[in-house]
Design brief:
The structure is a homodimer of 403-residue chains. By secondary structure, chain A is α/β, with parallel strands linked by helices.
C-alpha cells in the first residue's frame, strides 16, 4: 500500500506518527498547503518509507490526482478540513485509488426552515456519487476518524453482538481536558468545531426520518467514564446521525457533544457577531474570512499537548433490547489520556484519538480484512477485527453496562 | 469661528447636522480618512458654510495642521476614534487653534497589577502637555461629548447648586434600544466599546486615589428614568473618573455602564478568543487587526437608526449632603428617544446624544461664555449656561430627586 496523506496539521502529523510503527504500507507521501509543514511531518518520524511531496492546494483535484500518479499511490488519506472533501474525493475517484476521510462533505441548511428540516445533509454530495465508486470497484471509506469512525464501529458492534433491537444510538463525546496558561484554548480545530456546533443539529428517527433542531438543543448531563465525570452535552450536527441509519437498524440516532457551558457561550457570541462566517469581509482594504481570523487568534491545538492535562472520551450510548429479550443499555467508549498520548507519541489526546482510527482501518484494508466497493461508512464493515486491532495498538476500548 | 471637523462617521455627521441649525460659526470644513464620506457629510446639510477637505490621515499631525492653515480654521473638532487623539491634539496645539474631543488619550494597563493599580490613565498624555496649552493661551476642551461631557457638566452643577458635600459621583448609562432584524447590533462604535469595557475599570476614592478592578466589576441594577427601567450596570473604564476629581470635590467617582448580560457575555467571549486585540494577526498571508474584523462583521451603528426603537439615557447619580445639611441623592440625566432624533435630525439617538454636546460647547466658546487656557474638562467651566443652551436646542435634561 502506498498512501498519499493530504494534510499535515494536527491530525495528519499524528496519523504519520502512529502509522510509522506499523508495517502494513510500503510508502507514505505527505503533502499540505504549507510545503514546509509536509516536509517536517515526513521527516519527524525518521522512517524511510515516508517522504514529502511538498505543497499542494487540496481544493485542486487535478493537482492532487497528479500527485497520486506521480507517487504511484493507491490510497488517498484526507486529513484536511472538510471544505476540501469534494475535490479530494473526486481526485481519488479519478485516480483509481481508495479514499479515506474523517469528516464528510458539508451540509447546507434548509433555506426556509433550517431549524426543523434538513437541506443538503452531511455526506449527501459524496453518497450521490456512490454509483460511480461501485461501478469502478473502488472503495471510499468515509467518516473514518474517531467520531465519526470509531463511534460507527461501536454501532455495528452493538447491533451484531449486544442487541436484538436498538431504540437509540446516542453518540456522547466529552472530556476534562485543561490547557495551562490559556483562558480559552480549544483542543480541536476551531474551524471544524464552529461548523459542527453552529449548523442546525440533525437527528434521525425511524418514524420521522432526518430532521433538524436549533443549535445547542436538548441539553443533558452525561456521566463520562474513567474519572472524567459529568459534562453538559447538547445536540450537534455530526456524520454519525447520517451514517448509522444506512447500515444499522435503530429507532433514533443522535449526537451530543460535551461542549460545556463556557464553550457554548463563546460559540453563541461568535455567531451573534457574525464571526463564524466563512465568506470574506473587507477590513481596511483586505479581504478575510472571519472564521479564519478566529482560528488565527487562537493557539494551534496541535501544539498545546504539553500544556494539556486530562482525558478525552468518545463513545456510543446504546439503549434497546438485549439478545436475551431484556431491556439493555450500554456505553461503548474509548478514552485517551493526554499524558499517555504525549509520552507515547508526542501528540495530544484529541488529535491522536482521531488519527489512530484511519490507521487501523487502512491496516485492515491492506490485509484484505476490510474490503468493498462504493461509498461506505465504518458501520458497513465488520467491527470485531477493527476493535481487536485498536486494542493491539495499545489503546483499548471499554463497555459500561447500564449506559 | 471656523471649525475643522475631523471624522465624518456617525458622530461626526450628526455633529454637522446639529451645527447646521446654529449661527455661531462661519465655516465648517469636514475631513475623514474616507474622502467620499467627508464630501457626503458636508453636502448632506445643504448649507454653504459647509465644505469638504476630502481625505486625511488623522494619525498624521502635519497633514492635519496643514488643513487647519489652508482653511484658516480656529477650532479642531475631533470626531474620530480615540487612537487618533494625540496626533490631533498635537496638530491643534501646533496650529494655534482651540481643540475639542469627546474621548481622551488611551490608557495602558499597569504591567504587573492591571486589575488593582492604574498604569497610564485615560488623558494622562494630554494632561502632561497642559503647560504648553496654558503657555500658548490656547484651550483644549477634552471629553466634551455626552459621557464624558454632559456627565461632567452635571458634576459641576451638583457641586455648585445642589450639594454642600458629595459622597459619590456615579455616572450611570443605560438604554432600552432594540434593533429590528439583528441578533446583535451595538448602537455605538464596537471598537470603542471593546476598549472601554475590556480595559480594567478605574475608580477614584479620595482616601485611596485612583485604582482599578477586574473588568465588569461591582454589578448593580440601576433604575433608568422615562420608561427605560432597570438595567444591569458594571464598572467600565471611562474619562469621567479621571476628569471629575480634578475640579469637583467628591469622596468617590465611578462609571457604570448598562451593558446588559447579553452584551457582557459577547465581550467576554471576544476577549477569551483574543478578538479584542488590536495588534495584527496573519491570516492566510494578510495582516489584519482582530478588533477591526469584529467591527467589519457588524452593521455600522450610524446606519441602524431607522431600525432602532427605544431611548438612551446618560446621567449622573450624586449622593451626599444637600445645601440644607440633610442627606441628598439625585440623578441628573439626559434622555434621547431614537424616534425623535431620527425624525428631527435623521441621526440615531446614541450618536446624536454624543454629538449635540460639543456643538453646545462650541457655541458657548464662540460667544465667549466659556473661555480658558490649558487642558480643561467640562467640569472646569460654568454648568448653567451649558444646560440652558442644551434645553434651547430642544433636548432638555432632567433631575430625579432621591437618586
Amino acid at each position: 500500500m502506498r498512501i498519499l496523506l493530504v494534510g499535515a496539521g494536527g491530525v495528519g502529523s499524528a496519523f504519520a506518527a502512529i502509522a510509522a510503527r506499523r508495517g502494513f504500507f510500503e510508502a507514505l507521501v505527505v503533502t499540505d498547503y504549507d510545503g514546509a509543514r509536509a516536509d517536517a511531518t515526513a521527516s519527524a518520524v525518521g522512517d524511510d518509507r515516508f517522504s514529502s511531496a511538498g505543497s499542494v492546494d487540496a481544493g485542486d483535484a487535478d493537482a492532487v490526482a497528479a500527485l497520486l500518479a506521480e507517487h504511484r499511490c493507491d490510497v488517498l488519506m484526507n486529513a484536511v478540513d472538510p471544505r476540501f472533501v469534494m475535490p479530494l474525493f473526486r481526485a481519488a475517484l479519478a485516480g483509481g485509488v481508495t479514499y479515506v476521510d474523517m469528516a464528510m462533505s458539508l451540509s447546507h441548511p434548509h433555506p426556509e426552515r433550517p431549524h426543523s428540516e434538513t437541506g443538503v445533509k452531511l455526506g449527501d454530495e459524496q453518497f450521490a456519487m456512490a454509483g460511480e465508486w461501485e461501478a469502478a470497484g473502488q472503495l471510499a471509506l468515509v467518516g473514518m476518524g474517531v467520531e465519526p469512525g470509531l463511534s460507527d464501529v461501536f454501532a455495528r458492534y452493538a447491533a451484531d453482538h449486544l442487541f436484538s433491537a436498538i431504540d437509540e444510538l446516542g453518540v456522547r463525546d466529552g472530556a476534562n481536558l485543561e490547557v495551562e496558561g490559556y483562558d480559552f484554548a480549544p483542543s480541536f480545530s476551531i474551524w471544524t468545531t464552529i461548523e459542527e456546533c453552529l449548523n442546525p443539529p440533525v437527528v434521525y428517527e425511524k418514524a420521522r426520518g432526518f430532521f433538524t433542531t436549533p443549535p445547542f438543543s436538548e441539553p443533558e448531563v452525561f456521566e463520562f467514564p474513567e474519572g472524567i465525570g459529568p459534562v453538559e452535552c447538547v445536540n450537534v450536527e455530526h456524520e454519525e446521525v447520517l451514517l448509522m441509519p444506512r447500515w444499522v437498524d435503530a429507532g433514533r440516532v443522535t449526537f451530543k457533544y460535551g461542549l460545556g457551558t463556557e464553550f457554548i457561550d463563546v460559540l453563541k457570541a461568535l455567531h451573534k457577531v457574525g464571526l463564524d462566517r466563512t465568506d470574506p469581509v473587507t477590513v481596511k482594504g483586505v479581504q478575510v474570512s472571519p472564521r479564519d481570523v478566529v482560528a488565527a487568534c487562537l493557539p494551534d491545538p496541535a501544539r498545546l499537548g504539553d500544556r494539556m492535562t486530562g482525558k478525552t472520551c468518545a463513545g456510543l450510548w446504546v439503549t434497546g433490547t438485549g439478545k436475551d429479550g431484556e431491556p439493555r443499555q450500554v456505553y461503548l467508549y474509548h478514552v485517551v489520556d493526554n499524558e499517555w498520548s504525549m509520552r507515547e507519541y508526542g501528540h495530544q489526546a484529541v488529535v491522536w484519538q482521531t488519527a489512530v482510527n484511519p490507521v487501523v482501518a487502512l491496516e485492515l484494508v491492506a490485509a484484505g480484512t476490510w474490503a468493498g466497493a462504493g461509498v461506505l461508512g465504518p458501520e458497513a464493515l465488520d467491527s470485531v477485527p477493527f476493535l481487536d486491532l485498536l486494542t493491539e495498538y495499545g489503546s483499548p476500548w471499554g463497555m459500561r453496562e447500564g449506559g
